[in-house]
Design brief:
The protein is mainly α. It contains six helices and no strands.
Length: 163
C-alpha cells in the first residue's frame, strides 16, 4: 500500500465531501450533493492509484482506492456529525417543542403512560438521537465509500497498466 498516495487522495476527497456537507444545508442542493458523493468516492479511489509510486496492479489499486475513499468518508462524516448536531441544536429543538405542543392531549398522555416524557425529545434526547443517527450514517457511508473507492481504484489501475 502506498500510504502517501492514499493520504493525498483522502485529503482531496475529504475536502470535497466537507464542502458538500455545507452545501447540503441549502434547500434543494442536498439531493445533488448526495449523488455527487458517489462520484467523489470513485474519484478518490482513482486519485489514490494515480499518485502511486509503483506501477499498480488491479489488486493494489482496488485496496488503495478503497482505503482512500473510506478515510475521506470518515473524515467528512465526523465533520457532518458536528454540523448536524449544531444545526439541530440551533433549529431543531424549537421545532420539536412546537410539534410536541401541537400534539393532541391523548397522544401526550399515551406517551406518558409508556414512560416517555415528551419534553425529552425537544432537549437532550433529541440531540443525542441526532448524534447517534449521524454517527451510524457515517459508518454506513464509509462502507459505501470503500466499495466505490475500490471500483475507482481498480478501474484506474487497469487503465494505467494497459498504457
Amino acid at each position: 500500500m502506498d500510504m502517501q498516495a492514499v493520504l493525498k487522495a483522502s485529503a482531496v476527497g475529504a475536502g470535497i465531501l466537507i464542502i458538500f456537507n455545507f452545501l447540503a444545508l441549502l434547500p434543494c442542493i442536498g439531493c445533488f450533493t448526495f449523488l455527487l458523493a458517489f462520484a467523489v468516492y470513485v474519484g478518490t479511489g482513482g486519485l489514490a492509484v494515480h499518485w502511486m509510486e509503483a506501477p499498480p496492479d488491479l489488486n493494489s489499486g482496488a485496496i488503495n482506492g478503497a482505503i482512500a475513499a473510506v478515510v475521506a468518508a470518515l473524515a467528512a462524516g465526523v465533520v457532518n456529525v458536528f454540523i448536524s448536531t449544531a444545526y439541530f441544536g440551533l433549529t431543531g429543538t424549537d421545532q420539536m417543542a412546537q410539534v410536541l405542543a401541537d400534539l393532541p392531549p391523548e397522544q401526550l398522555e399515551a406517551m406518558a403512560q409508556m414512560g416517555l416524557d415528551p419534553a425529552l425529545f425537544a432537549g437532550g434526547a433529541g440531540l443525542a438521537g441526532v448524534v447517534g443517527i449521524s454517527a451510524a450514517c457515517c459508518c454506513l457511508w464509509a462502507l459505501v465509500a470503500g466499495i466505490f473507492g475500490a471500483g475507482g481504484g481498480g478501474f484506474w489501475a487497469s487503465r494505467k497498466a494497459s498504457q
